[in-house]
Amino acid sequence: SVNSRLAKRQRETETVNERPRSWRTRKTSPADDRFLTLQGRRHPLYTAWQLSSDLQNASDVRISRYTARRRLIEANFVSRRPLRRLVLGPAQRQERLAWALLREDWQQEWRTTLFTGESSFGLLSDSHCIRIWTERDRPRTDRYTQQVASFRGGTIQVWGGICYQGHTDLYICCGNMNSIVYRRDVIENVLFEFHGAVGKNFGFLDDNATPHRANTVLNRLDELGISTLPLPSWSQDLIPIEQAWDKLQWALERCSPAPRTLEELANVLPRLWNEIPTEELNNLTESMPRRVEALI
Fold first, then answer.
1. 3-class SS string, the chain
2. Looking at CB atoms within 10 Å, which of 15, 57, 133, 209 has the fewest?
């Protein structure tokens, strides 16, 4: 038994500590560990398999990808998903820079700007950031499978806007959002009422979607006296409405019980939209000077 083995070890060694063991020899040397660390810093997008291949080509030491991963963990490396950004050409970069230079000194002006945009939400999540815990070499079964469906089981397109100390109502679009629907339902109802409540000093900045650039839409905005701000092409990352959609998506994923039909989803989204704390929306608005500074 365990007690008898401990008693015997105490009689023989006068201690119950384990005897020294001959552990397996470490496969890599300190120089190999430094090489893996440097390669990890120089090539952060390399996989563990690529790092092990580089080590084999450099010093003829063959290790598995698991060993390469352990060496990086020992060097205080962590595995994260890379950030993503749009591929921009020289003309687009120049346009974004010119836009930022004109608004380099803006501070209070962003507090009087309404950031609007569109997004779609589905009954099922299509997030690729979900990970699972499982033992190594265990076969994949239904327990480790994420259920997916075409078009996320059904989607709803919404429109909304945020500003400092407030936000618009969330508009649920029944069908596709085109210029006719955008002018008739969004501009004439939601946007016009919000603009009348906050005053004429507010600026209007949208996400450059195709329905927003129609001549009938732009002409109607001029008739209503709503001043629009330009946004460079391929610059949706410059307006904080995209992060507001992320907050709404996170709230939807934590919603219990989860909506099972599109009707339930259409009823839940406005409630979750109104429950987003005003402080979080204010932080998004206050991030505009930092976004402009990052472009310069």
1. CHHHHHHHHHHHHCCCCCCCCCCCCCCCCHHHHHHHHHHHHHCCCCCHHHHHHHHHHHHCCCCCHHHHHHHHHHCCCCCCCCCCCCCCCHHHHHHHHHHHHHCCCCCHHHHHEEEEEEEEEECCCCCCCCCCCCCCCCCCCHHHCCCCCHHHHCEEEEEEEEECCEECCCEEECCCCCHHHHHHHHHHHHHHHHHHHHCCCCEEECCCCHHHHCHHHHHHHHHCCCEECCCCCCCHHHCCHHHHHHHHHHHHHCCCCCCCCHHHHHHHHHHHHHHCCHHHHHHHHHCHHHHHHHHC
2. 133
Mean pLDDT is lowest, of 63-67, 104-108, 232-236, for 232-236
pLDDT digits (tens, 9 = 90+) for 108-120: 889 989 999 999 8
